[in-house]
Specification:
The structure is a homodimer. Chain A is an alpha+beta fold. The first copy, chain A, is 55% helix and 10% strand.
């Protein structure tokens, strides 16, 4: 079965529609999606950015908000701006990497919905609420996420993202190393995974 | 008849496939394309960039070259990297704004083909060659392009691009002011122009 890695960042606006629609695009193609949460902050810092480029470059930011609004409207997805933007996504990412493969996608979608459909901060309370809603023991899961070994696991994921040449999110990585950046490249990346070029 | 403004930059890689395919996308929708060459350099300078972001941010640059190569392959377009990149596009832009609306699109496509299909520098000799190929008086056209009034015309276009909120190329601007950035937004922008949302 062909597989693609789906690299996403919880603070990333375009990762939200991508996370919501990728499984529906992958299923008819018979492609397995490997969900890989990571952090863009360290990669942006290497580029000299201490904030989201959407804040650093206001024209780009204005366009992005309108563009994501249009994308969500076309998908029938609610959309709200969390404040501040970008949200600190460290805890969400740590929890996501700590979870089993089976639960990570649904946890991730629910975090995105809290953040970008409801406009909520993805701080401890919201993450605990998502874990509760999934029938998980929130306190135990948060403790596991903040365990030193798990923190290191997320760090290694960020290092792997940098080594793969990633610079934004969402990004698909095919088994042959081809990368496809952006919500609007999901179809192309999934087609690539099954040899449709 | 609905119209869209097609804002493009001769040094921009993604503007090349966009210029080559936009009329074929616009015709069946009954949309008139208004070709508006401009310069990104002054806008990038305002953002603090003294070079193409694809050079300033190497991971982004590596991805762009591969992405444009894939796009051109899928469209059956030849693709070659001009050296240096980005090319100085000032003369091409000045000539393009000086030409009549009827000839500007074909002039622009031929410049893109010289630059990104053949990998040639778009300096004076190449521009003169394109003008010759169109049956125009190259020397007279180049002189007209470098006339003070025409230089001012291009400057005004760049100012208008900034006022519209443009930050990259290619960009479509609909009559209601909606903007659509990128070669992969042409279909969406043209659909928007005819009320298909």
């Amino acid at each position: 079965m062909a597989a693609v890695e789906f690299w996403y960042e919880f603070a990333s606006t375009y990762s939200y529609p991508a996370a919501m629609r990728i499984e529906a695009l992958a299923a008819p193609r018979g492609v397995k999606v490997v969900w890989r949460p990571f952090l863009l902050g360290p990669l942006f810092a290497q580029a000299g950015w201490r904030d989201s480029p959407f804040n650093l470059y206001p024209a780009k930011g204005r366009y992005m908000w309108r563009d994501v609004e249009r994308i969500c409207a076309s998908l029938g997805l609610a959309f709200a701006r969390p404040s501040p933007f970008p949200q600190n996504s460290l805890l969400a990412a740590r929890v996501a990497v700590s979870l089993d493969d089976e639960i990570r996608p649904e946890f991730s979608r629910r975090v995105y919905l809290a953040e970008f459909a409801e406009g909520k901060a993805i701080a401890r309370a919201a993450i605990a609420g998502v874990l509760d809603g999934l029938g998980l023991d929130a306190e135990a899961r948060l403790a596991a996420a903040e365990d030193a070994a798990n923190k290191q696991k997320l760090k290694a994921e960020v290092e792997r993202a940098a080594a793969l040449g990633l610079f934004g999110a969402p990004t698909l990585v095919a088994e042959d190393g081809e990368i496809f950046w952006g919500n609007d490249r999901l179809e192309q990346g999934l087609d690539w995974a099954i040899g449709k070029r």
